[in-house]
TrEMBL record:
Belongs to the NTAQ1 family. Keywords: Hydrolase. Gene3D superfamilies: Protein N-terminal glutamine amidohydrolase, alpha beta roll. Residues 1-140 form the Protein N-terminal glutamine amidohydrolase alpha beta roll domain. This is Protein N-terminal glutamine amidohydrolase. Monomer. Its EC number is 3.5.1.122.
Length: 141
């Protein structure tokens, strides 16, 4: 989510009039196990599924088209919304109910104004980093 915040910040600095056309999407569920189809492997019946506790996307919708900027996707950057949803989320009909996803859509200006991260979710119980944190200070507004 910090990298998406940085993307918002960049749009706001370079193209401030376009920020009104941008939204941030948080994807999660009660069990914090969100399935994302990373890619289709050789046979259509074999899918490479990645489970995450949550995922964050950047949407740009200036007119009748909508582009998804997903910094962790193997799809082209950006990808048209329909292609992204079709290839990344597929359908809930193939999922167990505990894997159904919830989507929270936040206007980018609000996200920029109110988002903060203390990076607690990036640490193990013993306080060590799961992955090294970004080289910039944590975001606080």
């Amino acid at each position: 989510e910090e990298s998406v915040w940085k993307l918002c910040e960049d749009v706001n600095k370079r193209h401030p009039t376009q920020l009104q056309h941008c939204h941030i999407v948080f994807v999660s569920n009660d069990q914090r196990t969100v399935p994302l189809i990373a890619k289709v492997v050789v046979l259509e019946s074999q899918l490479n599924v990645l489970f995450q506790d949550y995922h964050v996307l950047f949407l740009y919708n200036p007119d009748d088209r909508c582009l998804v900027y997903d910094l962790d996707s193997e799809l082209p950057f950006p990808t048209h919304f329909h292609k992204y949803v079709t290839e990344t989320f597929r359908t809930d009909h193939i999922l167990k109910p505990e894997y159904f996803r919830y989507f929270r859509v936040v206007p980018a200006p609000l996200f920029l104004q109110h988002f903060a991260s203390d990076r607690r979710h990036m640490k193990r119980a013993d306080g060590s980093w799961i992955h090294p944190p970004p080289n910039y200070p944590s975001i606080s507004n």
